[in-house]
Design a protein that fits this description.
661 residues; aminopeptidase activity; five-stranded antiparallel sheet; Rossmann fold; hydrolase; 13 helices; protease; AB_hydrolase_fold; Peptidase_S9_cat; alpha+beta; eight-stranded mixed sheet
Length: 661
């Protein structure tokens, strides 16, 4: 194996050195993934990679897989334009999605799609252009749902939004409204309507060969607010008539009831989707021949089945995935199962193998392989020659850093329930009497999984034991485990988080006076809310982009069509105030450090500002670091490095630990 992308590519977008006072560990872990997204050309001769540029910018790099020659063909500054994905429309043409946050009456997110040649020339706007007479704004620039009918070579099937236009004095104004589908030539921009705009349309699913087979329509009230009910329709292969497939209904606390369609298999004439079985998600198929014959494809008795494995230009379904202690994959395709087994032997220490992309004939596969102590590497596999070539490591800056194994553990909650989680100890540690961190995940509709985690590994390298609990309120373990989400059921969720800290102490892993809590998003909320149940447990609190006030979170959704759903998710009653850290600052004894981007649309920076103000008013120790121009992910090398370095120093001071370079 060898790199076929030249080392010069590394230098092309290297991040300038940061302040020398910051630790080398903070710089290495704060650097973003060197490959943020990657795709393989249909003929297999080139890869297109989004790579970080200095600050929070990114560049599209196209590299020849034979010669290694590479070129930056498109850049985005991150102020405000961000490159989020790029894929090949043909072997010479690339389509990219641009994400932008703009301040109008309020901060709004916009997306637009562009196309360009592989050498960077002929850059064009692929999204439908807006009209000066439009009566509303269009936030979405569309999504690619299919890489074109067979033989189209360069045309894409994409959604497009239409809004009515001012019509006085003209008969040419558009009067249609809603989402439709167009077939667009990515080079000439020639467009043809495939599905007329339809009010309420929320999703179109194609068969991978240019035919739209499933339609989802969101129900709304007269005010335009979504009710959380979606009606799905389908077409038989020989008709344009829509027939009812089923309904998907939000339960109000974060889950859904009903069949949720994901992908159509043209040859089998079925649609795959997820639905509940015995309180957990399972994969089903439904025949699209008019009979709607439903079959259980795969279920697991302990966890939700939550992932489809898809491959190739047609995105055909080849397997299913689910997470127990580790992410597992069941392939329907015997050839891929055999290949997956062989790769496991060829790539020791990298058991997490994902098929990322493929050539048009699927004779070459782009894949990713990694593990807990290996951030991962992209490879190209040639089925004909059976050769595996290394494309690019995800985090080359960590190549010389010793990382620690992530071990699946369980610990008892106060009521005896066994709580699963992951424990990472410092490299070379005996695992006894350590400074320790409990790190609850974000969401709350999420869960932690086994594999490389840059935040947990950073703190482990700095000498901390790190426990990541999948508390009740996490997804992946079924309806009963999710309860009423981590806000409405905060006492259970936060209780489990705190019990994780007590377990670390009881096991002798954590020194009782050197226990801290660190979290991002909902994890930051959990960190700030933990003192509500036990103010003496954690001696330091670090919260990144945290929710701090549930009523404030509800108000952030005002004016958006999902307001009613957000409001139901938060709920009403005493838990709204009792479960809001900013409403109970007097319960916090430990010093608090918070970080937040001022362009965060997930959780507004006002929540951290409110929390800081409340804590200062209560005479508590608090510091808030704001990052200008950054959103929820703090997708910036300098910001992440500063966050890591400052939080490490803060924890050492609060826990009375010696300084480390």
């Amino acid at each position: 194996m060898k790199y076929f992308v030249r080392a010069a590519l590394l230098a092309a977008s290297a991040v300038p050195a940061l302040a020398s006072a910051q630790s080398e560990d903070a710089r290495n872990f704060g650097a973003r993934e060197f490959v943020q997204q990657i795709s393989l050309s249909p003929d297999g001769t080139q890869v297109a990679m989004i790579q970080p540029m200095p600050g929070h910018g990114a560049g599209l790099v196209v590299a020849n897989v034979q010669t290694g020659a590479s070129k930056v063909v498109l850049t985005a500054s991150g102020e405000p334009d961000q490159l989020t994905s790029c894929r090949w429309a043909s072997s010479t043409r690339i389509v990219c999605n641009i994400y932008i946050i703009e301040q109008l009456d309020q901060k709004l997110a916009f997306t637009r799609m562009v196309s360009l040649n592989a050498d960077g020339s002929d850059l064009k706007l692929l999204s439908k252009r807006g009209s000066a007479t439009a009566l509303d704004i269009v936030q979405s620039g569309g999504d690619i749902i299919d890489w074109g009918p067979d033989g189209s070579n360069g045309s894409v099937l994409m959604t497009s939004m239409s809004v009515p236009e001012y019509s006085t004095g003209t008969h040419l104004a558009n009067t249609r409204e809603g989402m439709g589908v167009e077939l667009v030539d990515a080079t000439t921009l020639k467009r043809r309507s495939v599905e007329l705009p339809r009010g309420g349309a929320s999703e179109y699913i194609s068969d991978g060969h240019g035919n739209v087979r499933v339609l989802g329509v969101a129900e709304t009230r007269g005010t335009g607010m979504s009710t959380g009910r979606y009606t799905y329709s389908y077409r038989t292969s020989d008709s344009r008539e829509w027939k009812k497939l089923g309904e998907l209904v939000a339960d109000g606390v974060g889950g859904y009831a009903g069949f949720n369609p994901y992908a159509v298999d043209r040859d089998a004439n079925i649609v795959y989707g997820f639905d509940g079985k015995d309180g957990r998600m399972a994969l089903y198929s439904i025949a699209l021949d008019g009979n709607l014959t439903r079959k259980l494809v795969f279920a697991h008795p302990q966890v939700d089945v939550d992932g489809l494995i898809r491959i190739g230009r047609q995105r055909r379904v080849v397997g299913v995935s689910y997470a127990t202690d580790k992410r597992n994959t069941e392939f329907f395709d015997p050839e891929l199962q055999k290949l997956r087994t062989a790769l496991g032997k060829a790539l020791p220490g990298k058991p997490l193998v994902t098929f990322v992309d493929a050539t048009a004939d699927e004779k070459k596969l782009l894949l990713f392989a990694g593990g807990d102590t290996d951030p991962g590497t992209y490879y190209l596999y040639d089925k004909t020659s059976r050769q595996l070539a290394e494309v690019m490591p995800l985090r080359p800056g960590l190549a010389k850093t010793s990382l620690s194994p992530m071990r699946a553990v369980t610990f008892p909650a106060a009521d005896g329930t066994a709580i699963p989680g992951y424990l990472t100890l410092p490299p070379g540690s005996d695992g006894k009497n350590l400074p320790a961190i409990v790190m609850p995940h974000g969401g709350p509709g999420s869960r932690d999984e086994w594999g490389f985690d840059w935040l947990a590994q950073f703190y482990a390298v700095r000498g901390f034991a790190v426990l990541q609990p999948n508390f009740r309120g996490s997804t992946g373990y079924g309806d009963a485990w999710f309860q009423k989400n981590g806000f409405q059921s905060w006492r259970t969720a936060i209780g489990d988080v705190n019990d994780g800290g007590r377990w670390l102490v009881a096991q002798g892993i954590a020194a009782p006076d050197k226990l801290a809590i660190v979290g991002w998003s909902y994890g930051g909320y959990a960190a700030l809310q933990s003192p509500a149940l036990d103010p003496d447990l954690f001696k330091a609190i670090v919260a990144i982009a945290p929710v701090t006030d549930l009523e404030a979170l509800r108000k952030e959704a005002l004016g958006f069509t999902n307001y009613d759903m957000v409001s139901k998710f938060i709920g009403s009653g005493p838990h709204v105030k009792e479960g809001s850290p900013a409403q109970n600052p007097q319960k916090i004894k430990a010093p608090v450090l918070m970080f937040h981007g001022d362009q965060d649309l997930n959780v507004g920076v006002g929540e951290s500002r409110l929390m800081a103000s409340k804590l200062r008013g209560a005479g508590k120790s608090v510091e808030l670091v704001e990052f200008k121009g950054l959103d929820h992910q703090l997708d910036d090398d300098r910001a992440r490095t500063q966050m890591l370095d400052k939080s490490d120093g803060f924890l050492r001071t609060a826990l009375k630990l010696p300084a480390r370079p």
